[in-house]
Amino acid sequence: MKKLIGALMLTVGALALSTAANAQDKLKACWVYVGPVGDFGYSYQHDQGRLQVEKELGDKVETAFLENVQEGPDAERAFERLAREGCKMIFGTSFGFMDPELKVAAKFPDVKFEHATGFKMAPNLGIYNARFYEGRYILGQIAAKQSKAGLAGYIVSFPIPEVVMGINSFMLGAQSINPDFKVKIVWVNTWFDPAKEADAAKALFDQGADIIVQHTDSTGPLQVAQERGLHGFGQGSDMAKFAPKSQYTAIVDDWGPYYVSRVKAALDGTWKPEDRWEGLKEGAVVMAPYANLPEDVVKMAQDTEAKIKGGWNPFTGPIAKQDGSEFLAAGAVADDKTLLGMNFYVKGVDDKLPQ
Amino acid sequence: MDITVNILLTIATAATPLLIAAIGELVVERSGVLNLGVEGMMIMGAVCGFGAAYLTGSPWIGVLAAIVAGALFSLLFAFMALTLATNQVATGLSLTILGLGLSGMIGTNFVGLPGVRLPNLYIPGLSDLPIVGKLLFGQDPLFYASIALVFAVSWFLFRTRKGLMLRSIGDSHSSAHALGIPVIRYRYLAVMFGGACAGLAGGHLSLVYTPQWVENMTAGRGWIALALVVFASWRPLRVLAGAYIFGAVWIGQLHAQAFGIPVPSQFLSALPYLATIVVLVLISRNKRLTMMNTPASLGQAFVPDR
């Protein structure tokens, strides 16, 4: 009996060694998603990035992912499991993974960690995000040009800085075309509920809006726009298929180039934790093809896109806060820290920010 | 006037899947079985309905597939909870979890595809009437089906012999068994009816409400349907009222926000559940009322030889 156990243990040991050897040949990169990869929105786009890594780096890498991971303490187990399973690089893709990922990173100093949309770093933990607000400025300009009512409906999830920043950027864009442009805002308290988002779109259309903007992840609102012969913008991915006659453009998250560059850096040994916040210029945010728009509006959108790519920031003063007090003096540019903590509206937003 | 009609139409669309799922579960619970798998059966209906409609191009085949998927999936629960007499709460919960996972797997290839929408009813002349035209003659077919279902179930439960037997099984399965009523067979049929309804409700989501497939698209509506049954204290017409009240609160808060009336939307999202708790407290205060409507053997496993 003892012999048998000894033999077994030897085999197990040998197996462990051989996987370790394999792991050294290939870099194992792993992802943790907050939603299902089939959401056709946020997590889906991250997974497209993972697939691009597989495609471009081929047999140099091996990838794995965990989906539907709850934010909070449960996430800690997910990260720890991946680290134990031999992942040498782990991307946590949601804001709520911040503290669990930080804890696990401290336990596994030789694993490289990256966290999206957070603000805490460590010697082996870098952070990254995308400047979605740049795209929202363009949406605002298009909406102001196209809306006959001068009123857009805006469906939002939760009052976090990311979302508030988006609303403000949208309004600044719209006001640059039509200073009296109005927006009606509806909070649906979810990132993802197609039916509820569709209901919110119906409510906003019923109250006179003729363009819908969303900071939630499903295609529900655009389908309503299509049914009613009105228009809107896609979010996260290009949703034109769902509303070919209604989508003007979409803000597409393209994480692929970023992931490829980071995994490459890890392979070369040049990886170090960084704070990367990329936008239109770097290709992390992409505008879906402009459609259903007159030529001059497309031209305007493209010009603004070029201007932003050239380094111009939509949050350039003079900008007043909702109550009329000064936010940015003429020519001043908001720094990243202010943007990432944004908890107030700019002038002209007719809504009270939920606390 | 247009806006009122539109609001009413939106409420009807929001209430329909809740109503269909709840009326099915009501029959299940009236037979003394508690199936917490509504959410799971619903999502299976949604994915199979979408898939069938997409592959064949016919939304009606989608509706049929949704019904069949829900019923078949509920058979799994029936086999475990009725034949093997497992714990109904645990079995129902696992059915929900399984359904959410399995539907995601089945639906992998349907993600990101625009669906086929079940067309609204259109009767030339009638549907064009102002106000009532759209409300009465221009809605989606499943809206009419849901209303018909409520009255059919109400009639079946309280006006037919078989309905009486079903209710008697729910009140005391041992006595019903002693009277020679085939308890297990009735319960199997009730569970399958509930499954078919939940599947249809899911089909409404993926074929009418938002014609698309995405994981977790039922987003907790199965649980609201379960709450509705209790809210309605197991009475079909109250389920009808409840579904429309829940729908109205839901849509009303979106409109209130758009109007700029500051309502705490988190509170309103929780309202269906709060309302259910209030109703539970109220009916449990009145012993006689509780006795009258609550199926007495709800959730208890039945083993004939005991």
Automatic annotation (TrEMBL), chain A:
Keywords: Signal. GO terms for cellular component: plasma membrane. This is BMP family ABC transporter substrate-binding protein. Residues 28-308 form the ABC transporter substrate-binding protein PnrA-like domain. It holds the Pfam family Bmp. Gene3D superfamilies: 3.40.50.2300. Residues 1-23 form the signal peptide. Transmembrane segments: none annotated. It comes from Mesorhizobium denitrificans.
UniProtKB/TrEMBL annotation, chain B:
The chain crosses the membrane at residues 6-28, 33-54, 60-82, 89-111, 142-158, 188-207, 213-232, 239-259, 265-283. It is found in: Cell membrane. GO terms for cellular component: plasma membrane. Keywords: Cell membrane, Membrane, Transmembrane, Transmembrane helix. One of its GO terms (molecular function) is transmembrane transporter activity. InterPro entries: ABC_transp_permease. It is a multi-pass membrane protein. Pfam families: BPD_transp_2. This is ABC transporter permease. It comes from Mesorhizobium denitrificans. The lineage of its organism: Bacteria, Pseudomonadati, Pseudomonadota, Alphaproteobacteria, Hyphomicrobiales.
